[in-house]
Amino acid sequence: MMDCVIYMRWSSAEQSKGSSLERQREDCRRHATEAGWRVVDELVDDGISAFKGQHTTSGALGRFVQDVEDGRFPDGVVLLCEKLDRLSRQEPGRVFMWMMNLTEAGVMVATVDGGRRYSQGNFDMASIIEVVVKAQLSHEESEKKSQRLSSAWAVKRRRLNSGEKFVMTRRAPAWLQVVGNPATFIPIPERAAVVRRIFEETVAGYGKHHIARNLNLENVPTFGRADGWHASSIQKVLRNPAVIGELHPARKARGAKRTMTGDIVEDYYPAVVDADLHRRALTAIAERSRKFTGRGRKLVNLFSGLATCGSCGNKMTFRSKGRKQRADGTWVSEDYLICDGYQRGKGCTNGVHFNYAVWEEGILDPIIFEALSGDRSGSHSEVRDLEIEIATLERTWEIAKARSDSALRIAVDTGRPEAQAIWTDLVAESDVAMSALDEARGRLQLLAHAPSLEEQWARIHQLRSQLDHENETLRFDARSKVMSAVHALVNRLVFYGPSPMGVDMVIAYERSVSIYYHDLLGGTEWSMCRLNAEHYLNIEDEAAED
């Protein structure tokens, strides 16, 4: 009795909801019984198209071929399927060569349809013609279907790019639902609120693990069937452009990776997060990269990656000598900042060990003073509205620029006048967007200089009392938030020594701060001045070079 492996496949999710699987399984089992074959395995490729051939390499059929090559069936095996097109819908030549290789490896290919059997010894001319003809018919059918679908989606994308508003597919992000006729996207209020909360907490300095933990502690329902929030689900929300209303069309053949078309459709979805909050959240994510967060949950060094040595330009590194008991019985942590160039013997003469606790307090003092100076003329609501307008205009310009660049490549490649005309129009559109952006930025300068930093300053002031809290969770949350704010506010933080010993700092390209250690007071003192335009440009140039 020969071993038999049943193979079943269908290409669409809709087919999987019907009777395709049960029909194929029942017909194949009955045929195997009548032929006297022993079924040893049943293989299923669910929702995988045979038109591109991915199932023969990555699907269940591909694993079967690998098993054959590895010698799993030394006495031969029957590969049974409902019809020949279940095995492949590729070009006839590819199908024939694939079957020839398979049969030469000891496999008999059999179909329920027509009771056909193809093996190494019985591939006569009639069998060859039959395989080639069936493969040709199947391939042509799939190719026509593929072309129709591609054309339909291309037409939809062109309609959207021309400004027409309609729902291209009823598939929607988890915080939206499709209602009405014609169909419309409507936010689900409680889910949209969760999305906004995720972005707000990210801007506030929370990492994705902490956000997920807080949502789980509050028993906030997930958007799917998961039993709780995970860092990965928070990441997906943060990286989804649909939150600001954008659709990024993509192509995906079944069994293949999803590839972006390069098009961006604005205002396709209702935005649940404004453009400025979205931008600040992505900036906060960049600030919280591994090189800034330090090891573990302590976040001891708030200035990691920011502080540099004034003598050699190397980074200042954190060193801890543990806890030490003073003569009066109190315990202190001996933590220091020291030049990495000096520590590694790279020629730096700045060997000062800056007591971390003293200099953390000394650096935060002028930052908070500047935060409380209250010299910003524009109201918070006016500034906020203008920030959102600028963020939206920035995104509009980025999309217009990307489209004009794409059109330029097409015009160069094809040389067609139509493409050149489209490129000219898109460049004009990009220029208009840039002009609007420059105008809005000018209004922001008149209204309030760098007002978006208010939130950062207020955050440091409110959280400072929790920087050394006994509760580990509160301490970590506070230090992570302050760290994010410090890296957003401080443009330069340079340590000098041994004589004089101090720190030079620039805040928001606006204030220059000099901090020095006072031996008699046993602490730091500082002075601050406003930067002029020349200093501002020099600092920006140095930052660009770094």
UniProtKB/TrEMBL annotation:
Ranges of residues in domain Resolvase/invertase-type recombinase catalytic: 3-160
Record InterPro entries: DNA_bind_recomb_sf (IPR038109), DNA_bind_recombinase_dom (IPR011109), Resolv_N (IPR006119), Resolvase-like_N_sf (IPR036162), SSR_resolvase (IPR050639), Zn_ribbon_recom_dom (IPR025827)
TM stretches of this protein: none
Pfam families tied to this protein: Recombinase (PF07508), Resolvase (PF00239), Zn_ribbon_recom (PF13408)
Domain Recombinase positions: 174-292
Domain of life the protein comes from: Bacteria
GO molecular function terms listed in the Swiss-Prot or TrEMBL record: DNA binding; DNA strand exchange activity
SMART domains documented for this protein: Resolvase
Record-given protein name: Recombinase family protein
Organism of this sequence: Aurantiacibacter zhengii
